[in-house]
Amino acid sequence: MLKSLDLSISILYILGILAVGLWAGIRHRRKSKANAAGEYFLAGKTLKWPAIGLALFATNISTVHLVSLAQSGFDSGLLNGNFEWMAAFTLILLSLFFVPFYIRSGVTTLPDFLEKRYDRSSRDWLAVISVVSAIIIHIAFSMLAGGIVLKTLFGLNMYVSVIVICLITAIYTIIGGLKAVVVTESIQTVVLLTGAFIISYAAYHKMGGWEPMTDVLKSKGELDKLSMLRPHGDASGMPWYTVFLGYPILGIWYWCADQTIVQRVLGAKDENHARVGPLFCGFIKILPVFIFVLPGLFAYTLVQSGRLDVSSLGVDANDHVNSKGIYTLMITQLLPSGLVGVLVAALLSGLMSQVSGALNSISTMVSYDMYQRYRPEASDKQLIWIGKVSAGIALVFSLGLLPLLDQYESIFSGINDIIAHIAPPITCVFLLGVFWKGASAESAKLTLWIGSVLGVVVFAINKIYPETLIGHIPFMMMAFYLFCTCVVIQVAFSYIYPVQHTAVSATLYWKSPWEPLQGNAWKGLGNYKVLSALLLIVTGVLYYIFR
């Protein structure tokens, strides 16, 4: 349980974020047009690259990552760090190949972009899928992780504590719009990273450094926990080739085609800010392996050497330590009073930033991609009102999903399992749409429909009949197989129903892979091509070291 000092720090932080969020959102809208939808949903397209990069990172990194990456570090070592470092490659794709079309076409949402490239049917389907995925992946799982933390630290009912935090988050998000979200996310990123560095140092110090940790792993015959790239047949079910084949399918959807993430880019001041922002985020994404995953591995070696008591966590169905609460256990056992409050603030930052980003994106898509379709004459005031109502409904629906999602042994595995069955058709239509002139509107619509149904069917078989062949396929490889199937479907239907480009769609695909590199760029280190090359080199070197 928290001491009064730590509790006071946590409460003051929550109230401070609420005040800042309301102030930033209301001030921005007063300085601009009071009821302009563009100001509310896209911050009037005024965002610069530092805010975009920090907001992308904050929206991505939530309490889910703090809790579940530490859990994965405890259970399997650095392996799940692949989800962090592989993100660098997809953020480069976003910066080089997708951002120019998003900015030049002036779209408000990604479903809007899909309509310009294909047709209205594709937009409708993506809007529905995007809202559903935002509710499940970005809000409900974040609530679950936050609930586990708050229950452990405060001793409160998981649902009561999560509802209170999420209602506070909803207030400044719904009132202030994207400007409030981005400003608070920038603050929350700094707090979150500070907290993560503190717990990382505490675990490192308690263990006595890197060598004592490796000595414990060596004595247990578990040095492979330091490896990011595992051999074929590895017990984790995630050998190296599944990472390079499966992750891009998940990553391209998440970083390049998911409204909750990309909305920060759509609010960019200009194309260069929109391109450099994701690359800045790519460099920050190097850190989580060392400050989120590695502390979990330190915790494992601390337990093995008798320096961390995990008896309060209990055991799971397989008689292993129930590692879901390992992060909060580290906080309470490794840190002094006062610093515990800072770490709780960091955890709350993750929860609040994820929920606020998702709510803003849901309200944007419901307003522009659903309501405005049937009420094209709707005023900005009506669009904003519908957006606020939809955000409230999404929050309530997410709460209802918590008991179901809590059945996953690992939160991180649960998220990626669901993404693996949602992402393939969306990744397919975006990739082929941007890189292939022949991708037709009819083929995109059928690929989204058939691919989504296939994903649901495979997911259901996997859960109902886990002993079948499908049940034994790792989720990363399943994502790759479903993606390949979707590519075959779209290519085949593109020949059956040949493309008929409009004046707009004819400008929304690259004529050659080198064309996107011809755009105007800043001089020196700020050049997006230089930054992309540097990010590739740094990530490649890290993979070589931790191979």
* Helix-strand category: mainly alpha
Instruction: Quickly name the level 1 CATH class.
Output: Mainly Alpha
β-strand percent reads under 5%
Oligomeric state: single chain
Strand runs, count: 0
How many distinct helices?
A: 21
CATH topology: Sodium/glucose cotransporter
CATH homologous superfamily assignment? Sodium/glucose cotransporter
* Net shape: globular
Largest sheet: none
Specify the helix fraction band.
over 70%
Mean pLDDT: 84
User: H/E order of the elements?
Assistant: HHHHHHHHHHHHHHHHHHHHH
Radius of gyration: 23 Å
Named at the architecture level, the CATH assignment is Up-down Bundle
Q: Residue ranges: pLDDT <50 for 5 or more in a row? A: none
Family: Belongs to the sodium:solute symporter (SSF) (TC 2.A.21) family.
Pfam families: SSF
Keywords: Membrane, Transmembrane, Transmembrane helix
Membrane topology: Multi-pass membrane protein
List keywords for this structure.
single chain, about 550 residues, mainly alpha, Sodium/glucose cotransporter, 21 helices, about 0% strand, globular
